[in-house]
């Protein structure tokens, strides 16, 4: 009786340790969220989100940003204002109506950069990505900052 | 009469273009910030390619606005910790900022190609705590394009970013190194 209890106890402890190590291993190597494979949280026009932020940035941040950094995934439709490239060789499309004070800046990835190749300013496109930061007038910059989205791809 | 007016106008325009004026305010919408923390246990680094910066060649004013959720880490778990309430609390404080001035503006000729050593003094605001900081770097002018590279050190506890226990207290350095790289355009 005593011997079989000890044996069971040791097995349970070993299983416990293995499970704990497996969890730790998973956490340490947890994959990043695949933005394009994740369901869109909000579909809206570029002007809409820009104006939401210009009206009340705090409530917009409450709505769109998440504490752990995996913020809301947006599908934004707007007029292509410009295509540029950032210092990480990622394409950046600015969706902006000429009547708006700010736009939505959409940064693509190495995998999705090529999808921007045939696009031209003036075209209307819908872009899906994760929001990083909102629009607003910055006193120190003396500029309107754009909504910033990353991990983008064209979805229409 | 009309013809000579057109010719005069053309000459005047060419004459103005021949002058290379000091560029008006410069802006970079996708500047790069890299930070690095070294301890004997672990090296941690992160990159942000969505920094907005302005540089005024006439006044020397330099501003960096940093969207905190754009800092990317190799490990997803580390990125989550960085953004969390216990650390940078990025939902509550989505932006950090540097505002300052180039100290030796007179040493820099924005109209002449070259590499100019520069220092800047200003303030850094993280989690709504503002502290004075100094940075040094180079301003490079190539074919009329202005770019800036700088380095500065940041002591985390100055901004109340502290850890009393657990992995962060041993694996994150007390002082981290921040490197910036920005390529500017004329503000249109």
Explain this structure to me?
The complex is a heterodimer of chains A (156) and B (188). With 156 residues, chain A is of the alpha+beta class. Chain A folds into two domains: 1-30; 42-154, Nucleic acid-binding proteins (OB fold (Dihydrolipoamide Acetyltransferase, E2P)), CATH 2.40.50.140. Chain A is built from three helices and eight strands, in the order αβααβββββββ. A five-stranded mixed β-barrel of chain A has the order 2-3-4-8-5. Chain A has a two-stranded antiparallel sheet with strand order 6-7. In chain A, helix 2 (46-55) crosses helix 3 (57-64). Chain A is elongated, with a radius of gyration of 23 Å. Chain B is α+β, with helices and mostly antiparallel strands and 188 residues long. Chain B has a single domain, classed as Lipid/polyisoprenoid-binding, YceI-like (Lipocalin, Beta Barrel). Chain B has helices at residues 2-18, 76-83, 167-171; strands spanning 26-38, 43-55, 61-67, 95-102, 114-126, 129-142, 145-155, 175-183, 185-186. Chain B has an eight-stranded antiparallel barrel with strand order 1-2-3-4-5-6-7-8. In chain B, a hairpin with a 5-residue loop joins strand 2 and strand 3. Chain B starts with a helix and ends with a strand. The mean pLDDT of chain B is 89. The A-B interface holds A 27-33, 61, 65-71, 84, 86-88, 90, 92, 105, 107, 132-134, 138, 140-143, 145-146, 148, 150 and B 25, 27, 29-32, 47, 49-50, 52, 54, 63, 65, 67-70, 75-77, 79-80, 82-85, 89-91, 94-95, 97, 99, 181, 183, 187.
Layout of secondary structure:
The complex is a heterodimer of chains A (156) and B (188).
Chain A: H1 2-28, E1 42-45, H2 46-55, H3 57-64, E2 73-85, E3 91-95, E4 104-108, E5 124-133, E6 136-138, E7 143-145, E8 147-154
Parallel strand pairs in A: 1-2, 4-8
Antiparallel strand pairs in A: 2-3, 2-5, 3-4, 5-8, 6-7
Chain B: H1 2-18, E1 26-38, E2 43-55, E3 61-67, H2 76-83, E4 95-102, E5 114-126, E6 129-142, E7 145-155, H3 167-171, E8 175-183, E9 185-186
Antiparallel strand pairs in B: 1-2, 1-8, 1-9, 2-3, 3-4, 4-5, 5-6, 6-7, 7-8
